[in-house]
């Protein structure tokens, strides 16, 4: 609804709202000043009608556009939501204005508002919006609208409101159940999520589940230590033809690895027709957990040969394995050279892993060189890794000096390393300060 601005006399011409001008023969008269009051958020405030030359600074209203945001899983190709309100104008402002103008809010506009509150995680706006929908007396809201409301409350962290809404829904579909299950899973209420999942199985067959829901269920099975149910999910995924779904396969490999069933995990890995960084990372973690350190290094070498792009997490994992090989850093040096070639040696995780690997391999000079090349001097992990290298190589005086450097830098010391240093120095009756003062 547009408010037409009155015509003005400018420079002897009569300027009309449609942009045309006409010469006026009458003498110029003073323009009357008046105000129009609109009952917005503050009824006592008034809105002054601006001149045409100032209207350009007012932000134009954004065209309403309905968008769908019913997916629960986080995907890399998320579509950017179109804001339905201009900057500085909230959903509550628009609803107040439409109430003042006695205009009903159509369901598609409610959908747009819900999508915006969900994407911006605006909890107060979500509460106002839900209350407005309730007051509007919308007869039999469609299930899609209720699912969006459910997702909105979950995204805003209002789990109690979501639970109340879910309990009062006359009908529920797979999205409704999945939203609440994932909400309980993310909040750490694993048993509640499992109970809700078992209730869902009485209404919806597992054969109707998409792959992303099975991923969530496998994570839930790990959290609740329910291996039998996880095996059922695996069997169902095979029936549905998800055998080569890499996201689901990586979760299955991780699932079996958490239950120390390395043979089943390797079977899932070997049956894949192709691999990506997710499946390889899950395999590296499993072998490292089982202390198969040379196998971790072998797999890392195979990743490079297969052409799959390695990342900092892979380097961090294989460096932890190299640190425990007791090969005087031979494999670790190869990994370091590979990181330099790929430009990942400056990554904080990789650099910390290098310091730890060289320190545990007895190569303190290399560890010190990597540590001093770090641009991030506030990284607690790197400092503690360097301190651990001094302690393991029995360089206690250097370790004590390094303690004072850490204190001067305002860094937090790992308590286990401090206890280890005290025991090694025999300082049960003497403070580290006294020990340091006596040796320097």
UniProtKB/TrEMBL annotation:
It holds the Pfam family PPR. One of its GO terms (molecular function) is RNA binding. PPR repeats lie at residues 173-203, 379-413. Residues 1-86 are annotated as: Disordered. InterPro entries: PPR_At4g14850-like_plant, PPR_rpt, TPR-like_helical_dom_sf. The keyword Hydrolase does not apply. GO terms for biological process: RNA modification. Residues 20-36 have a biased composition (Polar residues). It comes from the Eukaryota. Keywords: Repeat. Residues 63-74 have a biased composition (Low complexity). NCBIfam families: PPR. PANTHER family: PENTACOTRIPEPTIDE-REPEAT REGION OF PRORP DOMAIN-CONTAINING PROTEIN (PTHR47926:SF361), PENTATRICOPEPTIDE REPEAT-CONTAINING PROTEIN (PTHR47926). This is Tetratricopeptide-like helical domain containing protein.
């Amino acid at each position: 609804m547009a408010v037409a601005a009155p015509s003005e006399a400018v420079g002897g011409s009569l300027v009309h709202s449609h942009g045309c001008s006409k010469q006026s023969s009458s003498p110029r008269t003073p323009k009357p000043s008046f105000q129009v009051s609109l009952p917005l958020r503050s009824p006592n405030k008034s809105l002054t009608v601006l001149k045409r030359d100032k209207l350009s600074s007012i932000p134009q209203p954004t065209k309403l556009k309905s968008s769908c945001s019913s997916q629960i899983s986080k995907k890399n190709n998320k579509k950017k939501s179109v804001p339905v309100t201009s900057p500085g104008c909230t959903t509550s402002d628009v609803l107040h204005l439409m109430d003042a103008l006695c205009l009903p809010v159509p369901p598609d506009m409610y959908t747009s508002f819900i999508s915006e509150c969900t994407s911006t995680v605006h909890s107060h706006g979500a509460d106002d919006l839900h209350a407005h929908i309730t007051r509007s007396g919308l007869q039999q809201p469609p299930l899609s609208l209720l699912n969006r409301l459910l997702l909105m409350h979950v995204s805003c962290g209002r789990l109690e409101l979501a639970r109340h809404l879910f309990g009062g829904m006359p009908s529920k579909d797979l999205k409704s159940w999945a939203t609440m299950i994932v909400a309980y899973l993310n909040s750490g209420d694993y048993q509640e999520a499992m109970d809700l999942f078992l209730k869902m199985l009485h209404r919806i067959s597992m054969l109707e589940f998409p792959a992303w829901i099975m991923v969530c269920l496998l994570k839930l099975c790990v959290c609740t230590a329910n291996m039998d149910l996880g095996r059922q999910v695996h069997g169902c995924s095979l029936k549905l033809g998800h055998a080569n779904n890499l996201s689901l396969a990586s979760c299955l490999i991780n699932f079996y690895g958490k239950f120390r069933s390395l043979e089943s995990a390797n079977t899932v890995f070997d049956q894949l027709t192709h691999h990506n960084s997710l499946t390889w990372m899950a395999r590296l973690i499993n072998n490292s957990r089982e202390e198969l350190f040379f196998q971790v290094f072998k797999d890392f070498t195979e990743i490079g040969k297969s052409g799959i792009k390695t990342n900092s997490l892979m380097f961090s994992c294989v460096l932890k394995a190299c640190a425990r090989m007791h090969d005087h850093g031979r494999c670790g040096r190869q990994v370091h050279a590979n990181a330099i070639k790929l430009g990942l040696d400056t990554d904080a995780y990789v650099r910390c892993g290098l310091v730890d690997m060289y320190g545990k391999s007895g190569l303190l000079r290399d560890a010190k060189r990597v540590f001093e090349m770090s641009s991030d001097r506030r990284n607690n992990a790197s400092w503690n890794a360097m301190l651990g290298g001094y302690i393991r190589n029995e360089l206690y005086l250097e370790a004590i000096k390094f303690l004072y450097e850490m204190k001067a830098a305002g860094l937090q010391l790992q308590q286990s390393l401090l206890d280890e240093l005290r025991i090694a120095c025999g300082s049960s009756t003497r403070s580290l300060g006294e020990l340091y003062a006596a040796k320097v």
